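Our collaborator T.R. sent over the components below with a one-line note: 'Predict the complex.' Nothing else. No constraints on interfaces, no templates requested, no preferences about which chain binds where. So this is a plain run: every listed entity goes in together, and whatever single assembly comes back becomes the starting point for the next discussion.
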Amino acid sequence: MYAAITRTPINAQALLDRVRNRSNGAALLFIGTVRDHNDGREVRGLRYDAYEAMAQAELEAIAHEATERLGSDDIAIEHRVGELDVSDIAVAIAVGAAHRATAYEVSRFIIEEIKRRVPIWKEERYVDGEDRWLEGTVPPARAPIR
Amino acid sequence: MLRVRILLFAAYRDWAGTGEVTLDVAAGASVGAAIRALRGHGDLWRLPEKPIVAVNREYADLDTRLRDGDEVAILPPVAGG
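Returned assembly:
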């Protein structure tokens, strides 16, 4: 299992290679990339801000939960932060499994949990020169911790 | 008195004009009380009534009691992926 917040470009092939082995008949790679448009506006790039220490901890917690679903630790995840251009990889998730159905299910679980609870924010930079923080998702409520 | 660090991110950082504020609060104060004390800082009056918070890197509730040295983060709704 591997999970990391990174400031350098993501090497998706390297993540895929981490989850390939003799007992897996499926190795699935998901990459999320920067789109050149959103809400009808032309996008020239994105800036991801993060509470890096907590984002790293949440990403590891998601990876742990995913290993329980998968029944193995053949999971590799990276999320990039900082300045990204159109087409750059923002997030990559590799899952290895004996059979494809499990790989698809666990990969989907991981990306949905990332969107739901990892403290990362996205500022779109538009071709017209404006910048805007995107609306996000409220994470699940937690009880008082003390 | 307790001293806590308040961390701000994304739009909230822009509103505050800084990503970090050190705040002294009364013993026994809650996270919610610390945030009320911050609302006069920069444009932080724009914060929602019940923002998302984390204490020492874990999501927490506004009723959580502060301890000296706590790291309190006020988080906009998240938008990773």
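Summary for T.R.: The interface with chain A takes residues 7, 9-11, 13-14, 52, 54-55, 57-61, 63-65, 67, 73, 75-81 of chain B (CB under 8 Å).
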